[in-house]
Amino acid sequence: MADSRGDTRPTHTDTETSGRASETPAEGLYDASHYDDAESAARRESGRDYEEGRFGRRVQRYAQVGTSMAGVVTQMAGKRFLGRELDSLKHSGELRQALGGIKGPLMKAAQILATIPEALPKEYAQELQQLQSNAPAMGWPFVKRRMTSELGPGWRKQFQEFSHEAVAAASLGQVHRAVDQQGRQLACKLQYPDMQSTVEADLTQLRWVLSIYRRYDNAIDTSEIYQELSARLREETDYDRERRNMALYRDMLNEESGVQVPEPVPELSSKRLLSMTWVEGARLMDFIRDHADQAQRDRVAYNMFRAWYVPFYYYGVIHGDPHLGNYTVRPEDQSINLMDFGCIRVFSPTFVKGVIDLYHALQRNDDALAREAYTCWGFSDLNDDVLETLNMWARYLYGPLLEDRVQPIQKGDSIKEGAELVNKVHRELKRLGGVRPPREFVLMDRAAIGLGSVFMHLKAEVNWHRLFQELIQDFDVDRLAERQAMALDRVGLERPV
């Protein structure tokens, strides 16, 4: 979900009856009832958190999504236990439609799972990849309650303007445009009600579905995948953590002229409200429609590559959600605005070293180094057959980085080749007894596949090998560890275990 962006639609602001944007009202003219909710204010003053882990809300969530999830289980169980073939495409399409109208983490988890090869049946993966993070926004009564609960009675006095309608809405919250008393243009992200309870309910349902699928197909053990999704989704409900993530990215990318990161506004932020400076830009598909120049498109691809991989190879940090709504393009210089910092993963320095070691292993056909890389990531029981099967997939993913030439991220028929390779790898892993992918791979796969999709939309033609070499040529695992520790300490984030 985008936190702050340029938007050509009219912005709705708090107005007087004349329709003119109101200035800060004088004390005698301030109508608190228009902005504040007495119940929310009382809760805030009491110090009680009514949204934290509410059992009743979890029960409601079970009922809300139970029918949709039951459809998944019916299909899987029907194939596995009853020996009958259900209409996979029909049922998976119905699931996508059901999840598309539900706010909350289940939709985001489904999107992420859809990008992990063979984590779900292919019919579900194909349908869930079409989910859009743009659910209908909640109305003004919710906005008043949320702002009062987070900033207190009289919150409206802290803004010159605050839009009645959201400019963006997604799975966990919605964004309103505002102007603070210093005149700064802001984006304010408000978390939907009871998201913590919703996360716990959705994770319970997700664990149920994955356990059924594991009985149906043992090629991929999803237990570590589930643990990773659980940790990241719980973090995404903490907007105070996201504020620190944003500060971290401003620190890590401060020398990248092609990338802009909004500035968080701590005094107007809380655990469920995140305010930041507004950044102007065009949506990617709008940029592509209006800019046919290949050099400009390639420049956008270069900036996207740097935005995602400078933090990873210099600091061991990845932005795990390159969704099209999470960044915009500045047409005047093809720089990008990077936004939404809820889905951030910090890796141990040795994991990053393993990524680079595997690259060199594939370059040199060095099986011993490849085995060492997989082992340091957490793979176990790597006999020669399993190693070769994993390398088949790795060669496909690393392919554009291995060839020193200008080329698109995918060749003409590489999507078909990739699908055929996934099927081949899956068959081999199943024959060999399956593997348990380390949890770190969830967001790495998400980022790689998501960025690949962006580069395909741009039709970018870049020497990916040289871009990669720029990042890793002076790699030193100890220096990365030092840089990472200092950056995390500066913004108050914990170091990886």
Account of the protein in words:
InterPro entries: ABC1_dom, ADCK3_dom, Atypical_kinase_ADCK, Kinase-like_dom_sf, Prot_kinase_dom. It comes from Rhodovibrio salinarum. Residues 1-52 are annotated as: Disordered. There is one protein chain. The protein is an alpha+beta fold and 497 residues long. The protein folds into two domains: 1-237, no CATH class; 281-497, no CATH class. It has 19 helices and ten strands. Strand 3 (173-180) and strand 4 (185-191) form a beta hairpin. Helix 2 runs parallel beside helix 7 (140-151). The longest helix is centred in the first third of the chain and has 26 residues, at 55-80. The chain is globular. It starts with 31 loop residues before the first helix and ends in a 6-residue tail after the last helix.
